[in-house]
Amino acid sequence: MPSSTILRIPVNLPIWFVSLLFVALCFSGEALSAAKSSAGYRLGSGDKVKVTVFGQANMSGEFSVAGDGSVSLPFVGTIRAGGLTVRELEREIVNLLRPDYLKNPRVSVEVLNFRPFDIIGEVQKPGSYPYRDGMKVINAIAMAGGFTYRAKENDFRIKRAANGQFEKAARDTLVRPGDVIEVLERFF
């Protein structure tokens, strides 16, 4: 007998329960993927985060990281979030809440919206666009309306938000939040 595992669902389970289970399994994979992709991600200007202080609705909410990398939270005030990972920001908030407000604060931070990326050069609609996880340069070009007739369709540069330096890129190069993609012009 093969060693593969087969999921057997009892026939007498209500269809609504089976449907709910299926939906939960589908969305748990997306949530896990998003959590993995943002684990080492460094927050920056334009990111939107959800801060949950468990049991304290008045301390929880959705907040945007300002241009200077700060975020303003209730009770705590303005703190630096730019350059921190989600876990580092959680620890920072816990440390600020612990001495004066809560004995044992439990804090969760998640990235709701990543900062946008920019695309310039020989595309139909240069500008800023919302970042999507797993996006590649070719997807970004499609969002910008495609190439102009003068574009070098296989020659791109990408300026990484992390180091501020332009580097060569290919169609399948992954885009990160805050990146600037340049589609170069061809010469006849």
Task: Give the proportion of residues in helices.
Answer: 10-25%
Q: Supply the helix-strand structural class.
A: alpha+beta
Name the CATH homologous superfamily of the largest domain.
Outer membrane lipoprotein wza domain like
Counted by DSSP, the helix tally is 3
Assign an overall shape: elongated
Note the run of SSEs as H and E.
Answer: HEEEEHEEEHEEE
Radius of gyration: 22 Å
CATH class of the largest domain: Alpha Beta
How many strand segments?
A: 10
User: What is the CATH T-level topology of the largest domain?
Assistant: Outer membrane lipoprotein wza fold like
Q: Widest sheet: strand order?
A: 7-6-10-8-9
- Could you say how many structural domains there are in total? 2
Itemize the secondary structure elements and their pairings.
Layout (H helix, E strand, L loop, with lengths): L14 H24 L9 E6 L7 E4 L5 E4 L3 E4 L5 H12 L9 E7 L3 E5 L5 E3 L7 H7 L7 E9 L6 E4 L10 E6 L3
Parallel strand pairs: 6-10
Antiparallel strand pairs: 1-2, 1-5, 3-4, 6-7, 8-9, 8-10
In short:
The chain contains 3 helices and 10 strands. The protein has 188 residues and is an alpha+beta fold.
Structure description:
The model is unreliable at 23-37 (pLDDT under 50). Strand 8 (151-159) and strand 9 (166-169) form a beta hairpin. Strands 7-6-10-8-9 form a 5-stranded mixed β-sheet, covered by helices on one side. Strands 2-1-5 form a 3-stranded antiparallel β-sheet, with helices on one face. The chain is of the alpha+beta class and 188 residues long. The chain has 2 domains: 48-113, wza like fold; 117-185, Outer membrane lipoprotein wza domain like (Outer membrane lipoprotein wza fold like). It has helices at 15-38, 86-97, 137-143; strands spanning 48-53, 61-64, 70-73, 77-80, 107-113, 117-121, 127-129, 151-159, 166-169, 180-185.
